[in-house]
Amino acid sequence: MRARVNTVSTKRWRPVSVIGKRLAPICQHDRGSVSSVTTLRAELPGLWGAQDLETDEAGRLRHCEMHGFQIDEVYGFWNPLETSRQQKLKSNIAPRWTSQSWPLSLNQIASGKPGAVQMEAFMQFQWQVDQNDIACVRAFVAFHAANPFVRVRVKRNLAAAKPAVDRSEFWKQMVGMRMTSVQRSGPNSAVARFLRRAPFPLSYDQVDGQPEGDGRRDLIASALRAHGGIRFPDKIAADLSENFNRLNADNGWDTALAQVNVLVLPAEAGAEREVARFLQNLLHGFGPKQSRNLLQSLGLTRYEIPIDSRITRWLNDFGFPVTLTATALADAGYYEFVLDGIQALCAASEVFPCVLDAAIFASFDGDAWTQENIIY
Is residue 368 in some structural domain? Predict the structure, then answer.
């Protein structure tokens, strides 16, 4: 799988930047316009930005430098300057999106160098998936299809219609998903055992009956400590108490439930992303991963998935074009960029992202998940 950026310059120019590692870009020169294709396979995010474009007397491009690369003045090819060899590009069979042209100020000058011109540029980004990628994903999902964890995910998240989410269920899943952050969540983990307890120690009614503020926070922290094995009980309690207060204020519950219940019927990926963004903005302690974790645990999403440590490890081993780290994925924009790539891989493989997520999750636990102990 590869990521590909086409940068096309027309009559005017503005700086261009893309995320990636320097890997032998290719440039083709034709009648005064440039189409550069960059193969990204980055271990760490970096930035490229075009600096100066110069033309000859006929208005044809003569020179362009991009942070250690330059277009040859005669032939119009990138000279890698002691970097890696040019990468052979694979045919694209994945969905792709195209960004719109940047707004252009006609009063902006390109540089102070004689002969420099200003050009407007736009970028076309493509996730590339080949037949080997597709075969690997399909074989992996098929191998784990009989796992109870995968079967439950298919039955619940791919259902034609799902039951409406109420306060009690939303709260319980929010407690569980906040607890899974930076700690083990397998079938025999302390988090899983806590969520399987009946009656649930932190039910909505029990927390709602406590005084606002310290009473709720202390109840939550005490329950987590009494159970044992759960990290950061005070931080989790503070976040959950704050979220309970937010939901109780200014029609917060009505707004939140209206948003998530949009997804009780199958929705497109864009609709799921909007709800995930809403929860991320509403809930304290919920970043891009935990907001999607909550929606997936409610059985509402098919495309938006939590990219946790298991997913990143699997994707890095698979050969995902961008090496993934938890630190980078904390940024919402970068998280969605990576998720776009996962969704493109799944679309080409005709596998829903939530099912690939379940197969990856199950692959780390073997046969430990059963029909009785599944709680996510």
Answer: no
